[in-house]
Amino acid sequence: MSNIGKILVIDDNRGILTALRLLLKSRGFEVETFRDPAIVPLTELAVASAVLLDMNFKSVVTNGNEGLFWLNRFKNVAPQTPVILMTAFAEINLAVKGIKEGAVDFIVKPWDNERLIKTIEAIVVGIKKKADTSSFTGSMIWGNSPQMKHLLDTVSKVSPTNANVLILGENGTGKGLLAQEIHRRSKRSSKEMHSIDVGSIPDTLFESELFGYVKGAFTGATSTRQGKIEDASGSTLFLDEITNLPIHLQIKLLSVLQNRTLTRLGNNKLIPVDIRLICATNGNISEMVKNGSFREDLYYRINTIVLNLLPLRERQEDIPELVKAFIKEFGEEYDKPEVSIDDAAMDKILRYSFPGNIRELRHLIEQAVILSEEGLIKARDISIDASKETVDISHSGTIAEMEKKMIKAAMVECGGNLSEVASRLGITRQTLYNKIKRMGL
Which of 66-70, 164-168, 242-246, 335-339 bottoms out in mean pLDDT, i.e. has the lowest? Predict the structure, then answer.
């Protein structure tokens, strides 16, 4: 039976631990049990698919405060790991409080086996699905701007090589998706790309997560585990928010890149690794090198090729193609395959500066598709704060001038095929004719 995920069960009752271990293992889960939450290794919390946490560890206390204390402690250490609370005392107020403080669900003892399994499976599968789709998905949408065309040309040249790549860009610009695109075009594409969000790993877990550890390396290391870098050997390793990596581990990463070997925590044995490294950051990494918070030698090792993903406000001519793609995506998801967008709605979008970049645009279009009626997204369906709109874009001229440039560029690229131009811009042929006539094109 395949392993679905790893569950940590924490309860002071041996009988409950035994029962849950047998039940969960019979359904394909890996299980670790603990009678005291204080002895749960931080490394186990970070890699667990879910935690089942009892709310009372002293028979004379039944108010659930212990469970809430450990819930908050666990969420601080491993915020991405879902915690399910267990109690023999079905108090609604306590359940609500636990969920408000970060628990994903609440189970009353004695439990129904099938219901408990369905609850855990739904949470574990849901978390995995969310992780897989936490950013915008699908193929890279390149757009029509000169900047993105230049980026595409560079990516086409770089991807087939093993050169390390550093991607710079604000949050939401699609750095992870660009990394996936580079991997897809590389000679390593037959293997899955491995991604690590460095910013989400607690400081105490960096070394064991990245480099792995051997049994007995520290308290709670009950087995040997290879790290994320070793997992990615033979493929591509994507380190998002690389500037969050502590200085002492920057040295170890540099050694891996130079020597193509690593050592697990608690062992001196050299393990060969073969990775193609792609890093990304939204920070000013060159400034960090100057002030000594990021090693200069590592910086020059990871930036063989530097790719800049500009914020959406600096390449607004790409917006119509993105809008069209997101309408198609969410039209299919919400069973509205024929949805289109009118001119007023598109104009409202083009006036907005999008501080959250493509991620924000995608979310905005998802809302609009849901709210749309009769197959048409209107301005009222675009939930933008009017105070945040930017009526004039200084680097591109007025909205009308920018729109004219977009239409002219599309006409050239499509060889004058107006149907293709209208399709690319996400508008109807009649709307395109009207705009061409009004603009004198």
Answer: 66-70
